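Each record in this resource describes a single protein on a pair of labelled lines. The shape at a given residue is found from the number at the same position. The record below illustrates this layout:

***
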Amino acid sequence: MPTTARADVESVLARHLDEGTVPGLVAAVAHGDDVTAWVLGTTGPDGVPMRRDTIVRISSMTKPIVAAAAMALVEGRILDLDEPVQRLLPELADRRVLRHPGADLDDTVAAHRAITVEDLLSFRLGIGVLPVFPAQHPIQHAYAAARLGGDGPPGSHAVPGPDEWMRRLGELPLITQPGSSWHYHTGADVLGVLIARATGTALDEVLDERVLRPLGMTDTAFRVPPGKRDRFCPELVASGDGGFDVFDPVDGAWSAPPDFPSGGGGLVSTVDDLLTFARMLRDGGGPVLSARSVAEMTTDRLSAAQRDDAGIFLDGAGWGLGMAVEADGRYGWDGGLGTGWRSDPERDVTSVLLTQVLWASPAGPRMQHEFRAAAHA
């Protein structure tokens, strides 16, 4: 890594630790195969020093990994991007659609077409988390009441198992017509259920077989077993007095297999596992995907209007299959529990920043943006 860039990154990270933005972090910037890593601070109040192999909840950075598993199934002809999902997800057949996002739940019209597998991956299935805070629309309140996740931090409340989850989702109308608008998060959770039903196997087993084991991502999973919890970070939230409170302890929500393995936000991982995943995409997909599938995932599929309607979630960026695609060709995604990843294929630069402090808003923390600006300058 160039000396000036390294110094700029170090300055950003050190300043945010000094300011108390986070108590600790693990970061890495890869220029080609040359990786520079930083391990700073502690895991939190009365915590232990961070380690390079510290395990963190990656929340929405789960989405690209699950998308890669789905694309592996497309290559294996188990799924088809153009296929309607109702064959495997009958709960999503014969959809009703709100006349407008703020309409009452019974003020609907028929869907113009079926939801496809591509709609799930591109987040254009017609339902998801709206960029309206605090919640104002009836569909937002109904979504939260159904306890589907996505309306709060991962692990903040119990989510039902996949079949009950799909039943509840199927009782809600779509917000917009399939294919017409981008809505955050829910498509990835539906995709996780679809993958499990298509293979007749639990989502964690499919991820392990199709992505994690081939890449050697041994610390990426939906739970942290007892033997690894000495490397697991508690999830923190800023306390308002300059300190931090524990939101989820190391023996909390990730200490047992989840009832609902969330394809939108359920995984834990490490900086080196995530660099391995990014390197797989950079190198054309092997041994997980073909170069064609990588190109599908990293090509923006949104119209200008769809990007604008996404609001603060995309902040002007586009979306491929399971991840953001920016105007300069960078791709990747962030997690609202304090994590982020971007790859710049033109310059062969990848950046990963892992903390465990809950973001105060969906717009993300200043620290992520400043780190990324320095890493990719």
